[in-house]
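User: Let's play a game. I give you a shape written as tokens, and you guess the letters that built it. Ready? Here's round one.
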């Protein structure tokens, strides 16, 4: 099992690669499907910690809550992603 920092980097990289920034958003279940090698429970836990750091924002929709990257924190997000590569 991966540690929390690696999972957070995977989450941020996945959202960044698919350009879910600002107005573009995705349900958390889609992120769980995309990162199938990581347990969904661990993805949800790490997503909550990224929300507390304001790196990920919540977006209310008619079908539930979606997530997206915070456009104001893109410098910090790109620095975290660079460490992944």
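Assistant: Ready! My guess for every position:
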């Amino acid at each position: 099992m991966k540690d929390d920092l690696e999972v957070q980097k995977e989450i941020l990289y996945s959202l960044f690669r698919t350009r879910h920034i600002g107005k573009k958003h995705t349900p958390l279940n889609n992120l769980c499907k995309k990162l199938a090698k990581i347990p969904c429970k661990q993805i949800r836990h790490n997503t909550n910690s990224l929300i507390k750091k304001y790196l990920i924002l919540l977006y209310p929709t008619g079908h539930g809550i979606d997530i997206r990257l915070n456009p104001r924190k893109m410098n910090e997000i790109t620095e975290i992603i660079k460490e992944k590569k």
